[in-house]
Write a structure and sequence with these properties.
Blueprint: H1 11-20, H2 78-81, E1 84-87, E2 92-96, H3 103-106, H4 113-119, H5 123-135, E3 138-140, E4 147-152, E5 155-160, E6 163-166, E7 170-177, H6 183-186, E8 193-196, E9 202-207, E10 213-216, H7 221-231, E11 243-246, H8 265-281, E12 285-288, H9 301-314, H10 316-319, E13 324-326, H11 338-345, E14 350-354, E15 359-363, E16 366-373, H12 376-381, H13 383-386, H14 392-395
Parallel strand pairs: 2-7, 2-16, 3-7, 7-11, 11-12, 13-14, 14-16
Antiparallel strand pairs: 1-6, 4-5, 8-9, 9-10, 15-16
Helix pairs in contact: 1-4, 5-7, 9-11
Bound molecules: zinc ion.
Zinc ion binds at residues 29-31, 177-178, 289, 293, 328.
Length: 402
């Protein structure tokens, strides 16, 4: 059976895995939060600085300035037009799983219902969350803005990068785990896949509970956030959206690109590549979430290495190289351990785990960052901790089971 990190054996998580009976070879695709790891000497405060009392009008986003606000002499030089200041506070990183598009399928009382209540959020909840984050002056940033690679004494090192942000804005990194649309997701209220609409924008394809085909822009994070940033350009710094963390064992984004011998493989791959290209154009980046959704702490070195190579062989050619590794299950291997060195050398100097508060640490060869899990568990049990971001009580969807 599958094991979770020692600190994370929440009953809900355990029963979800047991009830779904997933095999160790395929993984579950749901990430377990961990308690605050020990030895985190640079643990940052859980809360962000209070909002300044007099927040000035939000500066226009340089890549999509609104015409009436734009001064003629500001158009030419974005950097000078922006009122950027060095940001020194904690960097929030939150993550979601794919949204529950059809609550009646997620919360239908079957064996998966509790897992969906624990680990997913509904469309309504996501919409309320991004509205609140925006009102709290968060701005989406690219995770790669946190560091830069330099050569020191002939050796490549990773150094922290000064974060310059619009005045009074707080940085926010958003990631989405398991945007693969695994088989179990299709039956439990997630959409089926991402597609491109007639205008070449990202939409979703699914079948509703009546079995009717649905193409929508309103039931998944990507089209919702794309639209929100379209309406509120100052919610995104330089067009950043989020990080999409993908495994490979059931393909990517709803395309079964793992079925290499399938007669439809070339066509499936082509469609996936078109969606990926559009995502990249519109501010989304990608991360490895392992190939088989393995717990890096629990599996052997060889298994982790093979899994990582499998991802590089099968998923990297689709999404392109990435420096970001998002541990499945919110796992985290010891800094300096053989597995850690392996992941860093394999091209993943940015290692993201799960934690209940912002955590960011630079070492000479890596960046380690925790992410808050935004899901039913945190909405219900971490309301105080989530306060700097949004009021969880006001976010919770009444469609959840009681
Ligand atoms: Zn996962």
């Amino acid at each position: 059976m599958r094991h979770f990190g020692a600190a994370s054996a929440l009953i809900g998580a355990l029963s979800f895995v047991l009830l779904t009976g997933c095999s160790a070879a395929t993984g579950m695709g749901v990430d377990t939060p961990q308690q605050v790891p020990e030895h985190r000497e640079q643990q940052q405060a859980a809360s962000v600085p209070p909002d300044p009392a007099e927040t000035p009008a939000k500066p226009p986003e340089p890549q999509a300035p609104s015409e009436q606000q734009e001064q003629p002499d500001q158009a030419a030089e974005n950097t000078e037009a922006e009122d950027l200041v060095v940001y020194k506070g904690p960097v929030e990183h939150i993550f979601f799983h794919p949204l529950i598009a059809y609550p009646e399928l997620a919360f239908d009382g079957d064996a998966m219902a509790k897992g969906y209540d624990d680990w997913f959020v509904t469309v309504k909840e996501f919409e309320r969350i991004i509205q609140a984050l925006y009102e709290h002056d968060y701005v989406l940033i690219d995770i790669h803005a946190l560091y830069e690679e330099k050569m020191e004494n002939g050796k490549k090192v990773i150094v922290p990068k000064e974060l310059l942000l619009p005045r009074n804005k707080k940085p926010l990194i958003l990631s989405i785990d398991d945007l693969n649309y695994y088989d179990y997701m299709l039956e439990n209220g997630n959409v089926y896949r991402l597609i491109l609409d007639d205008n070449g924008n990202v939409a979703t394809y699914s079948k509703n509970p009546k079995g009717e085909e649905v193409i929508s822009h309103d039931n998944e994070i990507i089209p919702l956030l794309d639209a929100f940033v379209g309406q509120h350009p100052d919610f995104s710094f330089h067009g950043a959206k989020g990080v999409i963390a993908l495994t490979g064992y059931q393909g990517v984004l709803g395309y079964r690109t793992n079925e290499l011998d399938s007669p439809g493989y070339e066509s499936v791959k082509k469609q996936a590549l078109q969606v990926i290209a559009r995502l990249k154009e519109t501010g989304w980046t990608f991360a490895s979430h392992g190939y088989g959704h393995l717990d890096a702490v629990r599996v052997s070195y060889d298994r982790l290495a093979n899994d990582t190579q499998q991802w590089k062989k099968e998923v990297e050619p689709l999404v392109g190289p990435t420096s970001v590794y998002i541990y499945p299950y919110g796992s985290r291997v010891e800094t300096g351990s053989a597995k850690y060195n392996y992941l860093v050398k394999a091209g993943f100097p940015v290692l993201c785990s799960v934690g209940p508060a912002p955590y960011l640490k630079h070492t000479p060869d890596s960046v380690m960052m925790d992410r808050r899990h935004i899901d039913g568990i945190s909405l219900k049990t971490q309301q105080d901790r989530l306060k700097p971001l949004f009021n969880a009580e006001e976010v919770i969807d009444s469609v959840r089971p009681r």
